[in-house]
């Protein structure tokens, strides 16, 4: 059993009393609804009605079948003819442990996310928020694995629209940070992964592009540049994600005892406490590694296949918003990604904003609202 801090354990106990756990039975087929129960107060979007946490069949690493969880939020009032159009919300990094799951603990940025999602709700959209495989459900979460996240998002929409009769089958995906990468990957594969659905397009803010260019450089020689606690936590989540997605690499053998200690903490600890702990203990990235990750044959190529974003193949409009003072993702790389998509004649609408990573979420909404409205027009 995973070890939890006293505070996290208390949260988990409270959540367990309120939400249904995944049934101990065979995994349902992908995109098939399994069961549902009430949401915790922390995970319930203010202003929504009839909200639930549900479990559904999907896939994880290597297309292995698994069960995942999600939240569904309904607007008040009577649904329009054909049902509520769906916003599939791909959330940003909250951690990768079970007690961090969005449908259990709610958002890390509570005021921001509830304001953002509440605006979509007020516009007459229902919201389906997938937790991603291994978060609040069996197994471990392969952090930033774009294809896994795309399957999870699409399958959550398939399951919800097949079960809740007030939901339409037309939908868009909207995501921030980790969820922006998930939204972009979903945008690339939604038509193929979601037969029977009516996918219309995507919105992504704070997109983590070309992360493989940085992660492939990690090793004992990394200069002790001061990083935010969240940035260090992201790197630890990626290391643990690689342990989940590629156990054959034996990532532990590239880590020092300190590196293994922090990677193990990352597996269960949510973003806010983990970031605070790495800051308080002045964790230096280079001290986490016993040897460079570049010693792994074709490591950059492996990373690209694992967390790289597709540069072509989008068949519906894609909106990207990027804060010019964003340091949580590598803003020059996100600008580069947008330029590559444009050069490849992909259906991209791209906006920049004079704000940081978190600020872009709300700053972009006056542009993304009419963008999505047109998709449903």
Automatic annotation (TrEMBL):
Biological process per Gene Ontology, one example term: lipid catabolic process
Keyword Transmembrane helix: no
Gene3D superfamilies, sorted: alpha/beta hydrolase
Keyword tags: Signal
Superkingdom, natural source: Bacteria
Pfam families in alphabetical order: LIP
Record GO terms (molecular function): triacylglycerol lipase activity
Signal sequence interval, chain numbering: 1-26
SUPFAM superfamilies: alpha/beta-Hydrolases
Name this polypeptide is given: Lipase
């Amino acid at each position: 059993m995973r070890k939890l801090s006293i505070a996290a354990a208390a949260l988990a106990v409270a959540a367990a009393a309120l939400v249904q756990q995944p049934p101990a039975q065979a995994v349902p087929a992908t995109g098939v609804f399994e069961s549902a129960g009430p949401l915790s107060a922390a995970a319930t979007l203010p202003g929504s009605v009839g909200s639930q946490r549900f479990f559904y069949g999907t896939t994880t690493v290597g297309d292995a079948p698994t069960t995942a969880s999600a939240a569904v939020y309904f607007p008040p009032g009577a649904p329009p003819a054909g049902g509520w159009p769906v916003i599939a919300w791909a959330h940003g990094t909250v951690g990768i442990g079970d007690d961090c799951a969005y449908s259990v603990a709610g958002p890390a940025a509570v005021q921001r996310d509830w304001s953002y999602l509440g605006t979509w709700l007020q516009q007459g959209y229902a919201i389906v928020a997938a937790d991603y495989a291994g978060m609040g459900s069996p197994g471990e979460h392969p952090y930033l694995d774009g294809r896994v996240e795309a399957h999870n998002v699409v399958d959550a929409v398939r399951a919800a629209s097949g079960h809740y009769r007030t939901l339409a089958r037309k939908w868009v995906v909207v995501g921030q940070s980790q969820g922006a990468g998930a939204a972009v990957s979903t945008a690339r594969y939604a038509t193929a992964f979601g037969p029977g659905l009516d996918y219309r397009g995507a919105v992504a803010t704070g997109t983590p592009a070309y992360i493989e260019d940085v992660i492939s450089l990690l090793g004992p020689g990394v200069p002790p540049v001061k990083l935010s606690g969240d940035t260090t936590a992201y790197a630890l989540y990626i290391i643990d994600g690689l342990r989940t997605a590629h156990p054959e690499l034996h990532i532990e053998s590239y880590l020092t005892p300190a590196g293994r200690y922090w990677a193990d903490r990352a597996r269960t600890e949510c973003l806010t406490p983990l970031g605070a702990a790495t800051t308080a203990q002045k964790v230096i990235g280079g001290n986490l590694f016993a040897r460079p990750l570049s010693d792994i044959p074709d490591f950059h190529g492996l990373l690209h296949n694992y967390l790289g974003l597709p540069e072509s193949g989008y068949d519906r409009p894609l909106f990207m918003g990027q804060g010019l003072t964003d340091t949580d993702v590598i803003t020059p790389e996100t600008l580069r990604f947008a330029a590559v998509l444009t050069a490849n004649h992909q259906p991209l609408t791209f906006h920049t904003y004079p704000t940081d990573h978190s600020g872009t979420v709300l700053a972009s909404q006056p542009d993304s609202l009419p963008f999505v409205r047109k998709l449903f027009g």
